[in-house]
Amino acid sequence: MSLDNSSFSASLQANTAEAIAADIAHRCANPRKVKHGWQVCCPAHGDDRASLSITPEGEKVLIHCHAGCDYQAILDALHLQPSDLRVNPANSAKPQFICAYAYTDMNGNTIHETVRYAPKDFRQRRPDPVNPGKYIYNLDGITPVLYHLKALHDAIQRGERVYVCEGEKDAKNLAKLGLVATTNAMGADKWRPEYSETLRGAHIVIMQDKDDAGKKRTATITQALTGIAASIKILDLPGLPEKGDVSDWLQAGGTREQLEALAQTVDTSQEKPSAHAVMVTMEDVTERPIEWLWEPYLAIGKLCLLDGDPGTGKTGAASIIAAAVSRGYPLPDQQGKPTVSTGEPGIVLMIAAEDDLEDTLKKRLRLAGADMTKIMVLNEVVTRDQRREHFTLAHLALLEEEVQRLRPRLVYVDNLQLILGSKVDINRANQVNDILEGLISLAARYRFALICTRHPSKPGQNIGRLIHRGMGSQAFMGRARLGLYVEEHPLDPTKSLLIQSKSNAGGFGVTQIFSKAGGHFEWCGVTRINAQTMAGSGRGPEPHAFIEACFWLEEHLQDGYAHDAGHLIELAKEDGIGQKPLYGAKKALQIKSSQVNDGWLWRLPSLEDREDSIGCTGDSGYTGVTGTTGVSDLDTARNASHEEGGQDTKQDNPDTPDTPHHPDTPVVPIVTDDSVDLRVNTSFVTNLSPLMDNDDDFDDLVRHVSPWIHTASDNAFTCYVCKGSDSWLNSGGERKCYRCHKPAVSAVA
């Protein structure tokens, strides 16, 4: 976009940051006044969500694109210089670099820096990963940390005091005295939940500056740390001038001994703020889309519970997912084809205490093709007294250190009950919610997908729906945003099903099938059988017979052809499947029915053509790809007809539409359900082999045409009766030419 510099100059004459901000905002698309400034469409990218914030602050204007645009790119798009964002830029001296305060990780590597300039100003930057020694002046794509992070961690482990200051200069001056002091970048308004988690269990002394801003900061941090820190003291230093801070106090002659004595005398009983509600104005909330690792099954920052009986293949499913993430390989889509990108190869952190690493887990990962250099396992920790212990959520701070160091793309916990600790009652919702909150918070802050397995409940408990079959309180599944269930394939013991049982993050996915033959786990297709079908709810005394019938019928109709219903019933009977469960399976799979003279044809709809395809959502149950109750009223009425020559009334057929044809194309008579002679362009019909490509064509033409007649001389099909190959039709699964098909012969005669 272009900026009218003459108009911009007028705003500068107003000599206020608010006026400059308003002027810039009204030169962008969709300006909207918000609490702290303006929200507009960013001119540096194709923006339709008002991603750019324009905020007046003191004598300058801050701009930030929440979609990640570079600061300089925004200025270039606005045709501005950094000096244009300050009041009276013509009279301002060029900012002079004073110092840079480095925020480092546990290993001393710089994550980001706060740069101080004179006149007093601050900018944030991070190391350029591509150009060593260079910096990028934004914090996009990183998680900010507290100042002096390693010293903080060590002090908390030793039970020492931690001094929380208002700025880096104050924290650095206290560190020179041998005290452990910290602060956060960009002020108290930018205090993040992960800062509080870092200070969990710490003995805190908040150094309060002598001004209203200092008191506000103290209140914000105190509220954030209440219930998390072991203790909180607020130290109001005596003798401070207005707007004074601890650096001024030290410069005036204050010593470490005096400071520690003052901190010791503060009464913690008077420091806790009164309880109050934390209100958030939705206008100030920046909307962001869900980030997926494997849509719609695994989301970044969300908990997914993976349930299933022992031995069904939960770890196997996790192994092939982990292998894909470690290699950057795609995962299967809704057709079972590997097209869903997992991004660049990433780290997978596994907490897998159930399986032996040497003879079980590594073998599964190797057979799945995992990059072993990117698979990390955390099963034990060493305590401060040098004892080795199994990892539990009581060691969450140690897990956070590794997450911060490794930056995993996926964290897999097998199983959740083992890491809760002995003091947690898994049947008490309040305890479950409290203990899960820290783990889920890690996933959200450090942006990884989280899979946790559970053991199933006792036989006979919670069998109605798959989301209720896991052991323990329903708070487990209530807290999870996604749920998966692994079930053995009813007809093939070498395969298992990965069924989506819950989704509060998007639509439900189709059930994925994976092979586990010989300990080798790999994806091998999809099925229409879903969570409701597998639960067997409402299927009478023999739900397993119904499930077997579903898989049997889907397998026999998988080729896309229309098959004779009577013949299918006979085949099912030979395989031990009764007519009642077979008809239940027909309804669950939404089989298309069409009458052919005295018989019926059954056809399996394609996955994308089903009436309950992906995108449907439910509160907690499955209503997605292949729901058992998703049949339309029209199909219910059609299915209610007795399809094998019973006593019910034959279904009515709408008029068959005319089909255009070229004058030079031969036409043949075709028998319809109501015995009307219809002439059809045979080359058009041939191109629809073996069935119509979509349900619209099927409903408009094929559903009401008894024989499928093809007159293509080069086809490879022959009549079952006369063995001729010049023409054929599909009659109940048998290919006969129209000369040998009696109804067709009668119609021609």
What does this structure look like?
The protein is an alpha/beta fold. The protein has 5 domains: 1-92, no CATH class; 149-270, Dna Topoisomerase Vi A Subunit, Chain: A, domain 2 (3-Layer(aba) Sandwich), CATH 3.40.1360; 292-527, Rossmann fold; 537-640, no CATH class; 667-748, no CATH class. It is 28% helix and 21% strand. It is built from 23 helices and 34 strands. The chain has a 9-stranded mixed sheet with strand order 19-18-22-23-15-24-25-26-27. Strands 1-2-3-4 form a 4-stranded antiparallel sheet, with helices on one face. A 4-stranded antiparallel sheet has the order 5-6-7-8, with no helix packed on it. A hairpin with a 2-residue loop joins strand 29 and strand 30 (599-603). Helix 10 crosses helix 11 (357-368), helix 12 packs parallel to helix 14 and helix 17 (543-556) crosses helix 19. The radius of gyration is 34 Å and the shape is elongated. The protein starts with a helix and ends with a helix. Residues 1-14, 537-541, 612-717 and 742-749 have low confidence and may be disordered.
